[in-house]
């Protein structure tokens, strides 16, 4: 049921659900349920490996944004590296594929910017209505290292003006469009009518995206603490070479991760985090 090429892996579930994962970044670039695409990938996305893919689910690791002390590109090296395809796993109703990335697959400059021995295992699993993406980080050093990580999911929506995100009320967020001000979310449902770039910290496990009053996606996270909500809106959209000027209407990023604080991982230890997204 799997068609492999050197560039992407296609997952097919007996129900008809499908997903595509590129080896570049282990980026999930398509998830179809009921023959309908659920992830947003820009029409201008660059797919030749020269830039992180604008859409789907890029994996952010080991930094979020940029970092003064760690000289890595924005959001780290995972989304810009060629991962190895480990193989296929199946059980009764779930079809899954696994990818891995080790420090020895990195460019020398990246290894010296983040000088740790590690292994990432990333599993993408499909059932009839769900997509599960799980990241395992193994510290293969003797010493503790620290990282941030995030699954930068771009959801496909019809009209941003009709979208609401629930599950975030009363939480404190860092507002990246207001100089990282800390703000308490007072709305029961978060709506988007301008540039939004927020890190909600310590988020309960379940968040729902609705459109036109109807729940569309449920996102359940495990092992990860925070949730980022991002829409570039008009000016940022125009400024991005790999994003159409009008595409902000059709996407919202709701990204599970551990980014507000560093995750400390002892030598020889493993950490697991991930999400299950359900198409409702
Ligand atoms: O353009 P990039 O590097 O893919 O980042 C996209 C966005 O990713 C979000 O997660 C960040 O919070 C935003 O600040 C950022 O603009």
UniProtKB/TrEMBL annotation:
It is an enzyme of class 5 (isomerase). It catalyses: alpha-D-glucose 6-phosphate = beta-D-glucose 6-phosphate. It holds the Pfam family Aldose_epim. The keyword Manganese does not apply. Substrate binds at residues 54, 74, 79. Its EC number is 5.1.3.15. GO terms for cellular component: cytoplasm. The active site is at 152, 255. Belongs to the glucose-6-phosphate 1-epimerase family. Catalyzes the interconversion between the alpha and beta anomers from at least three hexose 6-phosphate sugars (Glc6P, Gal6P, and Man6P). This is Glucose-6-phosphate 1-epimerase.
